[in-house]
Amino acid sequence: MTTYRVYFRDHRGIVGRDDFDAPDDGAALSVAEQLYDALSDACQSFELWEHERVVSPVASDNAEAIRERTQAIVIEREEAIQSSIFAIRSSRRLLDLLNQARAAKA
Questions:
Q1: C-alpha distance across the termini of the chain, in Å
Q2: Rounded Cα gap, residues 40 and 62, in angstroms
Q3: Which residues contact 66 (CB under 8 A, 6 or more apart)?
Q4: For the chain, which residues make up each domain, given as ranges?
Q5: Which residue from 2, 60, 62, 80 has the least number of CB within 10 angstroms?
Q6: Which pLDDT tens digit goes with each residue over 10-48?
Q7: Is 33 left (phi over 0), alpha (psi -120 to 50) or beta?
Q8: Measured at the alpha carbon of residue 64, what is the angle toward residues 84 and 105, in degrees to the nearest 5?
Q9: 59 confidence band (pLDDT: 50, 70, 90)
Q10: If you ran DSSP here, which 8-state letter would residue 91 be given?
């Protein structure tokens, strides 16, 4: 596993970040994209980094399989973001998606 950091940005700059482990760039990018989607009402873009390297989007034939494989990581990170000190934690969309995920588990 490798540690990645995703930065969430709005027109002023960075409004939040999160660190997470993923097995490879494809999985990390899937996690970052899903987190960005969950926070899209609180930020306008994101950047994904692995140490000092920017991770660029990669085309994948198995994007849905990667998305399913990373779902547990995404929910864990959404919960961490909601508990963080960053402004993005107040995202209404994030809260709605977390509530849906929790209901699906019950």
A1: 29
A2: 24
A3: 26, 27, 30, 60
A4: 2-105
A5: 62
A6: 999 999 999 999 999 999 999 999 999 999 999 999 999
A7: alpha
A8: 55
A9: low
A10: -
